[in-house]
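Our platform keeps sequence and structure together, in a single record for each protein. This encoding replaces a full spatial description with a residue-level series of whole-number codes. We quote a single record here, exactly as it is kept in our systems:
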Amino acid sequence: MPLTLATWNINSVRLRLPQIARLLQERPIDVLCLQETKVSDEKFPRAELAALGLRHQVIHGAKGHHGVAICSRIPLEDAGRRLFHDHDGPRHVAARIDGITLHNYYVPAGGDVPDPAVNDKFAHKLGYLDGMTGWYDPASGEAHGDMILVGDLNVAPGEHDVWSHKALLDVVSHTPVETGKLETLRTTLDWIDVARHYRPDPEKLYTWWSYRARDWAESDRGRRLDHIWTTQSLGPALRGFEILRQVRGWERPSDHVPVLTTLSL
């Protein structure tokens, strides 16, 4: 059975319901993972998404900020939520689908100053990545099995995941301390970075373009902040990968675009 999964930092799920509807009309997506939903659980648009075919939902939200959701055309089982810091808020939710555990994350952005000594937001981000690493580390004793990890991880890991490696080395999301911690996380279970599995370096790959750009497409100063990883056990099931860059040009867009993969299960 083919399964197409998408991850998308939607930057307010209620505001962008028309964009979600268009995406689902244009693409045969079975499971949609959302970040930055910006809505409390009781006000999450369950009925509206169900009407679009996403009847099965697990959510973890809060009013005005953060928030993650997994919405699916096929049945799923709630697999819980994890906190890695006292001030995390709703940044993780998990579901089990056909024997696979799917983890959806919204890693803290980290503020503007890449110094944990003076910027609590950056310290929180680094601590969050450490917490994720500790959870997946085989030495933790956790039994993880087949897994997919998706979300806005707020780190552009490689030289070709940003418009200018040199210019962004001191900019939050691409500093060496962040990219190092993300790589440590990736190596815990030797996760497959699906984007680079299909489109290896030195191809430039971006999933985010700032709202501050006068013409985002012309300047093309993007970063790859949104990721899909799978455990090695699911590598043979992978069937494709896409970044839907064109969605950034839709009316009232998020600054992130959907990232898709298909697996044969």
Summary: The domain at 2-264 is CATH 3.60.10.10 (Deoxyribonuclease I; Chain A). Helices lie at 17-26, 46-51, 120-136, 165-168, 176-188, 194-198, 216-219. The chain is about 20% helix and 25% strand. The chain has a mean pLDDT of 96.
